[in-house]
Amino acid sequence: MKLSNRTAIITGGAGGIGQGIVRRFLAEGAKVAVVDIDQAQGDKLLADLEGKGEVIFIAKDISKAENAAAIVAETVARFGGLDILVNNAHASKQAPIMETTQEMWDLSFNTGTMATFHLMRAAYPELKKTGGSIINFGSGAGIKGLPNQVAYAAAKEAIRAISRTAANEWAADGIRVNVVSPVALTPGIVQWAKAFPDAYQEVVDGVPLGRLGDPETDIAPIVVFLASDDSQYLTGQTLMADGGTIKLY
Ligand SMILES: NC(=O)c1ccc[n+]([C@@H]2O[C@H](COP(=O)([O-])OP(=O)(O)OC[C@H]3O[C@@H](n4cnc5c(N)ncnc54)[C@H](O)[C@@H]3O)[C@@H](O)[C@H]2O)c1
């Protein structure tokens, strides 16, 4: 098992890609703190994971800065340390630039960029002790500049910038910081597809491997790789877990 005796915080772990990561991490021997705003979904997941490993559910809104320290403290109190931080949760609403409101901007930046930033800082003292790994989430929407996604695209590219900076600043502390940019079939994508069916079809048609990824079997193994010693010489990078859609140079 690649993550034996490692403790991980996974935000947005009750749904979509996050849930796939939680399941895979447990299978690889990690102890997992699932953080999500959706209490009902979290309760359901924990019931389903009964007997499958050491896991706790922390029902907290990551867009509130003060929750970051509490999330790290609760995880360390329960498991005795922290090795891996997966900043996966992100909520956003899509609209053309001229119709994007301050509220839409705040939603995307507070749940995405700022939550990632606050949790990284809250986790830093613990990750420094363990030589930990941080995995943040980017998006092709930011890299390509997809229409109708300005608040989301900007928040995601800011996350990539924070990740590169932290990779440089914290390398001396033994902390690695990488980004995954996924394409996967999740409830979030299903919702987006209903609002923008043409854009959704364009995404599907643009995947060279011919299908949207599965959270647990396509995306989570890449996150396991970044969390494990297999990637010990990799930091500051974005891995495109997108079936070949975007090639970074
Ligand atoms: N699915 C894709 O194809 C795709 C493509 C590009 C990027 N991404 C990125 O991958 C990550 C996961 O995407 P997904 O499709 O699984 O998303 P999703 O919307 O299906 O799930 C997100 C989870 O985060 C939780 N969450 C939302 N706001 C929260 C908050 N304030 N506090 C705590 N938890 C909160 C939700 O309850 C949910 O469980 C996100 O960062 C997303 O932007 C996904």
From TrEMBL:
SUPFAM superfamilies: NAD(P)-binding Rossmann-fold domains. Keywords: Oxidoreductase. InterPro entries: NAD(P)-bd_dom_sf (IPR036291), Sc_DH/Rdtase_CS (IPR020904), SDR_fam (IPR002347). It holds the Pfam family adh_short_C2. GO terms for molecular function: oxidoreductase activity. Belongs to the short-chain dehydrogenases/reductases (SDR) family. It comes from the Bacteria. This is SDR family oxidoreductase. PROSITE patterns: ADH_SHORT (PS00061).
